Amino acid sequence: MRSGSDYLASLKDARRVFVDGEPVQDVAHHPAFAPIARTVAGLFDTAADPASGIARTDPGTGATVNRLFTAPRSREDLTAYREAATTWARETHGWVGRSPDHVGAFFAAFAAHPEAFGTYSSSAAGSAAGSAAGSASGSAAGEHDFAANVAAYQKRIVDEDLYLSYAIIPPQVSRATTAHAWDGDLVQVGVAEERADGIVVRGAQMLATGGAVADEIFVSCIKPLGPEDTDFALSFAVPVGAEGLKLYCRRPYAPAASSAYDYPLTTRFDETDALLVFDDVFIPWERLFVYRDVAGLRRQFFDTGAHVLGNWQAQNRFAVKLQFLAGLARKVAAVNGVDKFPGVVEKLGELASLASLVESGVLAAEYTAEPDEQGLWRPGARAVYGAMGLQSELYPRVLAILRDLVGGGVLQVPSSVADMTNPESRADIDRYVHSPNADAEQRVKLFKLAWDAVGSEFAGRHHQYELFYAGAPFVVKGYAFRNYGFDGPLADVDAFLAGYGLETTPA
Ligand SMILES: Cc1cc2nc3c(=O)[nH]c(=O)nc-3n(C[C@H](O)[C@H](O)[C@H](O)COP(=O)(O)OP(=O)(O)OC[C@H]3O[C@@H](n4cnc5c(N)ncnc54)[C@H](O)[C@@H]3O)c2cc1C
């Protein structure tokens, strides 16, 4: 399996990542991206360590592979999958949303469901010569079997231990209409040209978290499209360094973070998020999975089980993060000497309940998992989407409790670690910023961590992330609505109503 240093070395390619008006030369050594790249490298090292339980033997090839890139095919597999995902999530304490297992889960499910992918007969007789982007493929025009493409690509993810990010949302131009109605051709990424050896895509897609430090990006569209949107009904995988692909990152937070002591989360886990711009990017046929097929996009995400498996991984990561926040809140309360006060116990109890709910949703999904018709063990959708449906209320509530408990302590801290090493300021900090159970260095460290969790720019981005990563809250509640299974509860109510009438005497 790939080591962390193999991964870091592979980042030096032709990728065009823009920050502050400049393309970044080498993401692995740039202050905005080096910290998260090192964190991802650490994940690869952990996976390669047999003691982590993340590696498994591929039954087909006998090779040692990352189980988080393979489909769970038994209950035991599913449990081992969750435990492996937990090991990775614990390494980042849940603060990295798009670790390589997220999109890895989607592809594992895609490959388990070849029937969800179509074919396409291409009649294009074009050639790569003189075209907008260079061709890497010699495949001829003709029949394209997207299930075979998915299978071959997923095998590459497993064999080469690839880290994929994804961008599956149209840019936020207007949500009143879909892309065909927007001003300008191909604002959302779409087909600019069909050629014998592939297609050329143009336009933008949001929002590739981790894209700047990924190997490749999966590009698709999960928002419903209409019949006039076929140009945009695509799925493909593209190397981050592909010619013509540009990543416009939001402001990275890591470079402004003065030290790990001051910003312990920002300095490790700032994944970055990027708008992708495809300036005529060539995609060979074998990298296409859905082509001009609006219904095919829905089949890909939902019929394959990819959405429920990927979001189970995400809820598991979220559960780990909530456990961390619960521990942080408890420690802050203890340092301030309020953890035995009844009002505080109540708040910590509420936080514990919220964290337990998500953890229970993850375990309930495993308990109610079943194999589908292709033998993929799918976590129970009712439990996965039930937990997800509450996330946009639950996370702000957790933050509110933590904010309540820290009070002004997160601001009664020195400006930076430099004040801790200046003898004059340090003497004052030692004297005035301490608690009975924590000296100044420990207390300041704890409250700076708390600020990075609730108040820093990194924390604000995380707040937004937890609300939106799986779709806007109304979309996620729609998943909960559709997957709850209202038939049983409705039948219960009908049976109850049928059990009495006008004539019934009150008991
Ligand atoms: C930090 C962060 C990281 C992300 N990472 C990724 C990633 O890695 N990959 C990826 O593909 N995407 C990612 N996303 C994008 C995410 O998937 C989208 O933000 C999400 O799907 C919501 O789409 P939107 O932002 O365009 O919001 P919109 O769809 O524009 O919705 C915004 C708000 O408008 C209102 N609204 C819009 N439409 C309707 C409607 N039909 N009915 C009622 N109200 C409506 C609602 O109030 C809604 O909350 C990320 C987002 C964030 C914030």
UniProtKB/TrEMBL annotation:
Keyword Flavoprotein appears in the UniProt entry: yes
InterPro entries: Acyl-CoA_Oxase/DH_mid-dom_sf (IPR046373), AcylCo_DH-like_C (IPR036250), AcylCoA_DH/oxidase_NM_dom_sf (IPR009100), HpaB/PvcC/4-BUDH (IPR004925), HpaB/PvcC/4-BUDH_C (IPR024719), HpaB/PvcC/4-BUDH_N (IPR024674)
Domain HpaB/PvcC/4-BUDH N-terminal, chain residue ranges per copy: 4-290
Residues noted as binding FAD in the record, renumbered to the chain: 172-175, 209
GO molecular function, one term: oxidoreductase activity, acting on the CH-CH group of donors
Xref: Gene3D superfamilies: 4-hydroxybutyryl-coa dehydratase, domain 1 (1.10.3140.10), Butyryl-CoA Dehydrogenase, subunit A, domain 2 (2.40.110.10), Butyryl-CoA Dehydrogenase, subunit A, domain 3 (1.20.140.10)
All residue ranges annotated as the HpaB/PvcC/4-BUDH C-terminal domain in the record: 299-497
A Pfam match: HpaB_N
Keywords for this protein: FAD, Flavoprotein, Oxidoreductase
Record's protein name: 4-hydroxyphenylacetate 3-hydroxylase
Organism of provenance: Streptomyces boluensis
